[in-house]
Amino acid sequence: MTNRTALVTGASRGIGRAIAERLAADGALVAVHYGSNKAAALETVAAIEAAGGHAFPVEADLAQQDGVDVLIDGLKEGLAGKPLDVLVNNAAVFGPGIDATEDEFDRVFRVNVRAPFFIIQKALPLLRDGGRIINISSGVTWFAVPEAVYAMTKGALNTLGRSLANTLGDRGITVNTIAPGITRSDMNTWLDDVPGAADGVAKIVALGRVGEAADIADAVAFFTTPDSRWVTGQVLDVNGGLYLG
Ligand code: NDP
Q1: 141-157 burial by CB neighbour count: b if 16+ within 10 A, else e?
Q2: From 23, 147, 169, 235, which residue has the greatest number of CB atoms within 10 Å?
C-alpha cells in the first residue's frame, strides 16, 4: 500500500478505526471519516501517526442531504491531487424494527445505503483504474434480527456490490462486500454490559469467541492486496464460523 491512498468511512471508532489503522500500517495515506465524534477521529489519526503512518480527518454527517458532498470535498482537500486507491464504506447506524417511524426508516437508509451509493458515484473520478471498493455489510442479511430496517439496508449493500462489480470491471476496479458477525464495538455494548452475553456468543461461534474489530480489518486488507485481484462481486462472511450448527 506504499504510496497509495484510502478512504474509510466511520473510522473514528470500532471496526472503521481498525480498518484505518490496518491500511495505514500497510503504508496507505488514510482519510479518517467521521460523523460527529471529532475527538474519536483525532484519536484514530493520532494513533496512526504514532505508529509511523499518515492520515487526515474528514467530517461529514451522512444523514444530511449534503453529507456526501461535504465528505468528497474534505477527501479532495486531504488528498491534495493524489488519486484514491481504496474506498471502504463502513459507516452505518443500527436499528429500528417493525415499529420504525418513517423518519427513522429514512435516516437509516440515508446513512447505510444512500451515502455509500453516492460516495462511490462521486469518488469514482478520483479512484484510479485497478482501485478497490469494499462495502461493510452484516450477517443479518442471512439470520433474523428484530432490527429489520437495518437488516434491509445491509441486503441492499450486498446487491449493490454484485451489480457494481460488473459495471466497474472494465476499469479493473474490484467491488467486494464483507459481512462481519458479532463483533465487539460501540454498536454492540450489550456484549460487555449483559452478564454472560459474550460467553453465550462464544458458544454459537465455531472458533469460540466474540469477533474483534481487527478480525474484520485484516479481511478488508486482503481485498486491497494484489492477492485478491481475481475476486470481485463477492460477499465474504467474516464471523469465526457463526451458527455453523
Ligand atoms: P460503531 O457504532 O462502533 O461506529 C460507527 C461509525 O459510523 C462511527 O465512526 C460513526 O462516526 C459513523 N457514523 C455513524 N453515523 C454516522 C453519520 N450519520 N454520518 C457519518 N458517520 C456516521 O459501529 P461498528 O464499528 O460496530 O460498525 C462498523 C460497520 O460494521 C457498520 O457498517 C456495521 O453495520 C457493520 N457491522 C458491525 C457489526 C458488529 O457486530 N459490530 C456486525 C456486522 C456488521 P462518529 O464516531 O462520528 O459517530
Answers
A1: beeeeebbbbbbbbebb
A2: 23
Domain ranges of the chain: 5-185+213-237
From ligand 1's centre to the CA of 213, what distance in Å? Answer: 11
C-alpha cell at 227: 492477492
Q: Around Cβ 48, how many Cβ atoms within 10 Å?
A: 25
226 preceded by cis ω (within 30°)?
A: no
pLDDT for the residue numbered 94: 97
Using DSSP, state whether 202 is helix, strand or coil: helix
Q: Using the predicted structure, report yes or no on whether residue 13 has a pLDDT greater than 90.
A: yes
Query: What residue has cell string 471496526?
Result: 15
Residues lining ligand 1, judged by CB closer than 6 Å?
A: 10, 12-16, 34-37, 40, 61-63, 90-93, 111, 136, 138, 180, 182-183, 185-188
Residue with grid cell 481487527, as numbered in its chain: 214
Q: Which residues touch 92 (CB under 8 Å, ≥6 apart)?
A: 10, 111, 112, 136, 150, 153
For residues 74-95, average pLDDT: 98
Structure-block grid coordinates of residue 99: 415499529
Q: Which residues lie across from 86 on neighbouring strands?
A: 6, 132
Active-site positions read 150
Residue that has been written with the C-alpha cell 461529514 in this structure? 60
Joined grid coordinates for residue 25: 500500517
pLDDT tier at 23, thresholds 50, 70, 90:
very high
CA dist 197 and 191 (Å) reads 5
